[in-house]
Design a protein that fits this description.
CATH class of the largest domain in chain A: Alpha Beta
Structural class of chain A: alpha/beta
Radius of gyration of chain A: 24 Å
Shape of chain A: globular
Helix content of chain A: 25-40%
CATH topology of the largest domain in chain A: Aminopeptidase
CATH superfamily of the largest domain in chain A: Zn peptidases
Number of strands of chain A: 20
Largest sheet of chain A: 8 strands, mixed
Oligomer: homodimer
Distance between the termini of chain A: 29 Å
CATH architecture of the largest domain in chain A: 3-Layer(aba) Sandwich
Number of domains of chain A: 2
């Protein structure tokens, strides 16, 4: 398979060198411990997932933070809750020094979650429930079941995959190492963010403020899904993000569309027109020069992308898609910007549908930024383009004078949080050590993704801490993150515990 | 003014001839009666408006029908509830014979109302409330106020303007004539429909079934708003209508748009694309040959349209519009088809907004049919066009095999009710008699509109009854019909009572 070709060269050689200077992987011992403690681990995870953690509800987020701080204290960490300023969501920080260790590794995850109002949750998002494998997904009494629990079972709850699964894997990995008598080989710092799902508006400031506390030789980011092939991947960065909402305006009051439809502008059409002026159905962004700032894709990145196992055909079947847009390979798009239409709304459907011209309509967008792009430049390009298309841009609901003076008015508000892309070179020694550790744990080469399509606030963090960053994802790709019925397979959690335990106790460079 | 030019010729001559053969208008007496009974009239109207009448809730509709039947009985009518078949919404029928009368006039209105779920109702839609003139619209205690009540006050409730105002005007006109001792000059038939706001799915069959009961020499349709200038208009028909809903499909489950946005088709974009493939922002319909069947506009119609007072500038100001679409004159569009986008929806906005690719998105449309067009031909043209654009049309939620086999799938369902346009010649004797009666009541020439933009099920009715139809609207144009805060000005109601009283007692040809 293609990925074996990639790893058969220098990377594997490095991995083997690192392995040679290192104690054996604790994977077998950790697995035995996990097999003896599956229900206790799931019980802990259920308790963590039962705590509401919608990112925008800061009081809930703070309760999670206090709970996690206690869990780290109980595992011997010195802890702090870090904030950028009072009243902003705290990051949970914990430190565990290892006598004689020469390296310090910062393990990042986030404990806040996406909103929960999506339709279709089979059980309440903060009442974790176990279900059998897809597609049946039958409810199952895991507490009454005999062990070992079926690793294809899935625990359903908000944040199961994104990103409390990563938090639980770390906690259980620490428990496992203690139980089997293995010591960490590095100094450990833990940084669990509490506002990632609202776009990390204060996180960069928080890291700057606590730079000395947080610094280390390597940042391991435990967020995002594994490769769709089910194989462990590591990544070397994320795209950036910026988002905006638009509202367009028609008549001050709804109008009967028989009387006025041929004469009065229709916001439902205007918003569709605005969307289609920005991008095509096929994903092409129509804003001139939008990708001008993008860093050209290196040959090494192209080779790494080409080496990823082909999963697109299976994905289409699993997702019910009769086509894809953009290029044929999923990951190729990650090194370019994407303009997503999160939502479009105008007028009433269903029982309240009326033959009326609506007063306004709205659309919500996000832009994923490739390396080289900045939110400020994207804002300028979007606004210049809309202005050139005849839109008068305002920041609040327009008054009558503004409506009358302008043929097309759009209220445009940029989201609070944004970020640039983050990218660490794939060939540094710390990155190679991570790949080697995971290879020892998993028993097979790890897949390397130059950049993942999702975003995080990590670019500024990496710049502040001046450390390389490697993303180690443990969640199944089909975990419904950001959607109803978010879930994590037990197999993903078991694997994550082993991977983290390995990184804690056999990593060196 | 332009409309005087139109009426200074043959129409006015006809009107004066009709007037010469006729008793004087009862307008002055009716006005005096109304002035002495304003609070009683409003009390009756409030009682009628307090009865929930959403067209799709048949049990509510039936309660209204029984109540109205009683009101007609109390005024000496013989009555029946007519249905097309058991279980379908009833029409209230009443007949009052006038000894010696040679003409029978059928007065049509509808007593059902639009749905009520629109946002922004200042008071509940079935709790009628009086408010002062716009823009203040301050709540006012009309029961405690001294009379005369301010005619610029507005009574807010669902159906106040569309179309219980017309029903109340007829009831009060009958009361007024009785009180002042004036007899009708024609046999009166009343036909109040109970399913107009759900598109009259059974009304044509109802009229066919009861053709002998309903037949007459003239059909006066009391629905729709007055001219925007505030002047009384009469019209000679309506456009037809057909509507449809579309749903387009993306992934089976929502996807993280960072990971999948550049590769998975986005329903929010697909629905915008579908909308913009059907029409432009400026109202141009992009379906080839869509207007091929439209009857060419006659010179007489063109002249009548040109004679309407210019109200477009004031309308734009009142509606907060910085532009209009289509041609410069509002009514010019009525003789052509219009494709309206009632609603467009996909993804979540607001607190549940997520950076996700939605699973589906929908849009709802109606098409207003000009004379000559038929719903069947429109259906064919729309579906042929969408098919040519690459859409696979289905009637139910597509199964996995259908999704996988087709790049673009759209579920398309046509609304149950539809209708062709209805058009009566402007120069017939019955039409001239109506114009003359209203001119006597109002003291100024009536405006003549060849066709109004709204729809009704009247075309088939006119064909069945083989009688000319004239539309006599009494509601203020800004009555928020089909929207939140529907209302009727007291002045509109007072005028309507006088106009109906005149038509009942001084009409002859």
């Amino acid at each position: 398979m293609a990925y074996r070709g990639l790893l058969s060269g220098a990377c594997v050689a490095l991995a083997l060198m690192a392995g040679a200077a290192q104690a054996a992987s604790p994977a077998a011992q950790v697995r035995a411990w996990r097999q003896a403690n599956e229900k206790a681990i799931v019980t802990d995870f259920v308790k963590l997932l039962s705590m509401p953690n919608v990112a925008t509800t800061v009081s809930d987020v703070e309760k999670n933070a206090a709970y996690l701080q206690d869990l780290l204290k109980a595992r011997g960490f010195t802890t702090q809750l870090l904030t950028a300023e009072p009243g902003t969501p705290p990051s949970v920080f914990g430190e565990l020094k290892t006598p004689g260790a020469k390296r310090t590794v910062v393990f990042y995850a986030h404990y806040d979650g996406q909103p929960i109002g999506q339709k279709g949750w089979v059980t309440p998002p903060f009442t974790p429930s176990m279900r059998t494998a897809l597609p049946e997904a039958t409810p199952v009494d895991w507490q009454g079941a005999t062990t070992p629990l079926d690793p294809s079972w899935r625990l359903y709850a908000r944040s199961a995959g994104d990103d409390k699964g990563s938090v639980q894997a770390m906690l259980s990995a620490l428990d496992a190492l203690k139980a089997v008598g293995r010591k960490p080989t590095v100094n450990i710092k833990i940084l669990w963010e509490g506002e990632e799902e609202q776009g990390s508006p204060h996180f960069a400031a928080l890291v700057k403020k606590h730079k000395e506390t947080l610094k280390g030789d390597l940042l391991i980011m435990g967020d995002g899904p594994m490769h769709q092939s089910g194989r462990q991947q590591i990544n070397f960065g994320n795209r950036g993000i910026t988002g905006f909402k638009t509202t367009v305006y028609g008549p001050l009051k709804p109008l009967h569309d028989g009387h006025y439809g041929s004469w009065a502008p229709s916001p439902t059409v205007m918003i569709a027109s605005l969307v289609m002026s920005l991008r095509t159905d096929d994903g092409k962004i129509l804003i001139p020069g939008f990708a001008d700032d993008v860093t050209p894709v290196s040959e090494a990145d192209k080779a790494a992308l080409a080496a990823l196992p082909p999963i697109e055909g299976e994905l289409k079947t699993a997702m019910g898609l009769g086509r894809n847009i953009g290029g044929p390979r999923l990951a190729d798009g990650y090194l370019a910007p994407t303009l997503n239409v999160r939502a479009i709304h105008g007028g009433d459907t269903g029982p309240d549908a009326a033959n009326a011209i609506a007063t306004e309509a709205e659309a919500s967008f996000d832009v994923r930024l490739a390396p080289g792009m900045t939110p400020a430049r994207v804002h300028q390009k979007v606004e210049d383009y809309l202005t050139a298309q005849g839109w008068k841009i305002v920041r609040d609901t327009p008054d009558l004078a503004t409506r009358l003076a302008n043929p097309k008015v759009v209220r445009l508000n940029w989201d609070e949080g944004d970020s640039i892309a983050s990218k660490t070179p794939m060939d540094g020694p710390a990155a190679a050590a991570v790949a080697a550790s995971i290879q020892r744990t998993r028993g097979e080469p790890v897949l390397k993704v130059p950049l993942v399509g999702a975003s995080s606030g990590m670019a500024e963090i990496v710049n502040t801490l001046q450390a390389p960053m490697v993303g180690v994802s443990i969640a199944n790709y089909d975990d419904n993150q950001h959607a109803a019925n978010e879930n994590l397979t037990l197999g993903s959690l078991w694997g994550g515990i082993e991977v983290y335990a390995g990184l804690l106790s056999d990593l060196s460079w």
